[in-house]
Design a protein that fits this description.
The protein is mainly alpha-helical and 449 residues long. The protein has two domains: 192 residues, MFS general substrate transporter like domains (Growth Hormone, Chain: A, Up-down Bundle), CATH 1.20.1250; 203 residues, MFS general substrate transporter like domains (Growth Hormone, Chain: A, Up-down Bundle), CATH 1.20.1250.20. Helix 3 packs antiparallel against helix 10. The radius of gyration is 23 Å and the shape is globular. GO terms for molecular function: molybdate ion transmembrane transporter activity. One of its GO terms (biological process) is monoatomic ion transport.
């Protein structure tokens, strides 16, 4: 067993231990009547009328198709297609710009034309993106990135929208269904699928000898998902919202705009938005630069097991997510304090990666950063839920993502190639340190949860 297999095995053992620790001993001390009620609810949630197995299966397939591509996209461009690093940066930038541009209209089109149709379109667009990615032609590669950006926007909007509307349309709550349980299951499925996809992509490349194979496998999974959506899902739509507004409606719209502005200028929301921009922007840049950074720390000429390394990163994120559940269940620390600690740890990771000391130390620092990612998502989700009203949640979330996309695009354009990982990590470290200070002064002093 080589070092990366041993690392991965150790991380999986950690995940298993943290998963077992999710169950508190006090759970067995419930009254018998409570146990009967819980058993009844569990039976109801597994009944056919409350089943969401069809959605979860499709969700697993489309996420697997997405995760399979991640570990080998950069190396496919540079080592098989022989694309110059500066052009690789432009390709990634194109994907971010495409995703940002399509994100503003993808949801509204899905609401009008149907979420099932949008999910089917995602499968087709993502499959075409995979096909275009394996063709060694620069114009075709750019077309693949444009389709990839559109696909990403759809993946993180229309599937969840379809699931929530379907849950309400079929009144699954009456049959024992629980929407929060579905979201929790989705998170677990995503983490497990990511780990399995990393291992599978590494195996496919080792067997076939080409980095194109994971993209071909993604096309197959997307085809299966397309078929399942076609035959098992019902169509649903969003609110059409005709514009026949009365004077009262217009006054309400003005009031809503005022509340939106008040929310956006709230110091706590501004601090949280700054933290999100810096952390998520650094996360996207890490996806682009971890491969060349790890290669630069390598002392041998052997090929790095990208899929296995990626699976290790995902195992680190899963372990942190499981640890987050334990921390919050026992109320060890406030969410705002935890977020500051997450930013500080991410800052340490990037600072330590500026001048890597060895391949293994760099690998474990990157695993630590992925652990901060695993804790970041549920922590910020809770804080946003407390600080932002439901009536304007989607608007505020969209507006807060604008500087994020601009940040990533500007940095990619500025650096020009994947060999500039040290300078990018240095920039991320400084920005995270500033965001950490701003968040600490705003959220902690204001008594945020």
């Amino acid at each position: 067993m080589d070092i990366y297999h041993a690392n991965f095995a150790g991380l999986l053992a950690l995940c298993a231990g943290l998963s077992a620790a999710q169950y508190r001993p006090s759970a067995s001390k419930q009254k018998s009547s409570d146990n009967s009620s819980a058993d009844l609810k569990e039976k109801q949630s597994n009944s056919p009328q409350a089943s969401q197995h069809s959605f979860l299966l499709v969700y697993a397939l489309v996420m697997a198709a997405d995760w399979l591509q991640g570990p080998f996209l950069y190396s496919l461009y540079t080592e098989e297609h022989h694309v110059p690093p500066s052009l690789v940066s432009t390709l990634f930038t194109t994907g971010f710009l495409s995703g940002a541009a399509s994100g503003y209209f993808a949801g509204s089109v899905a609401d009008r034309r149907g979420r099932k149709a949008a999910c089917l379109f995602f499968c087709a667009a993502c499959a075409l993106s995979c096909v275009a990615t394996v063709v060694p032609s620069v114009p075709v590669l750019f077309a693949g990135r444009v389709l990839g950006g559109v696909s990403t926007s759809l993946l993180f909007s229309v599937f969840e929208s379809w699931m929530v509307t379907d849950f309400h349309n079929r009144e699954l709550a009456r049959g024992g269904g629980d929407l929060s349980r579905t979201f929790g299951t989705m998170s677990t499925v995503n983490s497990v699928v990511a780990i399995a996809s990393g291992v599978a992509s590494e195996w496919l490349v080792s067997v076939t000898g080409t980095r194109k194979t994971p993209f071909v496998a993604s096309v197959v999974l997307l085809g299966v998902a397309f078929w399942l959506i076609s035959v098992q899902w019902d169509e649903n739509y969003g609110d059409t919202g005709d514009n026949k507004a009365t004077i009262k409606d217009q006054d309400k719209h003005i009031t809503s705009d005022s509340k939106l502005w008040t929310t956006l200028t709230n110091p706590q929301v501004l601090a949280l938005g700054l933290a999100s921009t810096m952390f998520e922007g650094s996360m996207y840049l890490f996806v682009f630069f971890w491969t060349p950074a790890l290669k630069s720390a390598q002392t041998t000429t052997s090929a790095l097991p990208y899929g296995l390394i990626f699976a290790s990163f995902m195992a680190s994120a899963l372990a942190a997510s499981l640890a987050f559940n334990i921390i919050t269940e026992w109320q060890v620390v406030r969410y705002s304090t935890l977020l500051v600690a997450i930013l500080a740890t991410a800052n340490f990771c990037f600072f330590s990666s500026i001048h890597p000391k060895s391949e293994q130390s760099t690998f474990w620092v990157f695993c630590l950063f992925e652990a901060t990612v695993g804790m970041y998502w549920p922590c910020t989700g809770y804080l946003k839920g407390k600080l932002i009203e439901d009536g304007m949640r989607a608007q505020v979330y969209s507006i807060l993502r604008i500087p994020l996309n601009l940040f990533v695009v500007v940095v990619l354009l500025y650096t020009g190639d994947g060999e500039a990982s040290s300078s990018v990590f240095s920039l991320c470290s400084k920005l995270l340190l500033g965001a950490c200070g701003a968040l600490g002064m705003s959220l902690l002093k204001s008594g945020a949860p």
